[in-house]
Amino acid sequence: MAxxxxxxxxxxxxxxxxxxxxxFSLDAGEVLGLMGDNGxxxxxxxxxxxxxxxxxxxxxxxxxxxxxxxxxxxxxxxGIEIVHQDLALCDNxxxxxxxxxxxxxxxxxxxxxxLDYRSMYQHAGALFRELKSETRPRxxxxxxxxxxxxAVAIARTMLSKARIVLMDEPTAAISVRQVAxxxxxxxxxxxRGIAVILISHRxxxxxxxADRVVVMRRGRKVADKPIARSSPEEVTxxxxxxxEMV
Length: 246
Description:
Blueprint: E1 4-13, E2 16-26, E3 31-35, H1 42-49, E4 57-62, E5 65-67, H2 72-77, E6 80-83, H3 95-99, E7 106-109, E8 112-115, H4 117-130, H5 146-159, E9 164-168, H6 176-191, E10 195-199, H7 203-209, E11 212-217, E12 220-226, H8 232-240
Parallel strand pairs: 3-10, 3-11, 6-9, 9-10
Antiparallel strand pairs: 1-2, 1-4, 4-5, 7-8, 11-12
């Protein structure tokens, strides 16, 4: 049974049809590359899965059960997490504080409690070690590289025991070494049985880590196939319209 299934999802904003009749499924432990030019409808589609937008029509199902998402908190309750392109981190806080932001651990008795920094540092450190990241729990985010920041955002999804992680351009504007680090993080999520949707313009990244690729153009899905049966040249043709549909 698919971890996520979209059936005839559409979204319009007045007269503008942003997403038109898109269907696909995603299995647990599968990485799906979602590709398309600017304005193709990728971000709108992902925002519907994340609970930011309600579909104008169509259905979203998790493990065979149809769900209705009114807000992002609903998606999180169903195990759907999103790593935004800007990462939504607090630069003035430590890595551990960002991982536990809004879910801080406390200790104490009765009405009196204090933040349990020691437990948060230990737990965050274990997550970073699992990701094989050089990120340290006490490091301030503003002093981190792009790859380390991604590790913090991904550790946050692991803390919440996510079943599906949506990643929006995670390798944009970072160095080659940091790109390799982020792609390894994605593989780690896959190996934990977490389904990943990777939005990216970077063809090598998608072909390096994804199991399947879905290509969108002008709000429609024009391809959905295993990476092994496609090529960067074909995907480029689908994105630009040189190839109509496969």
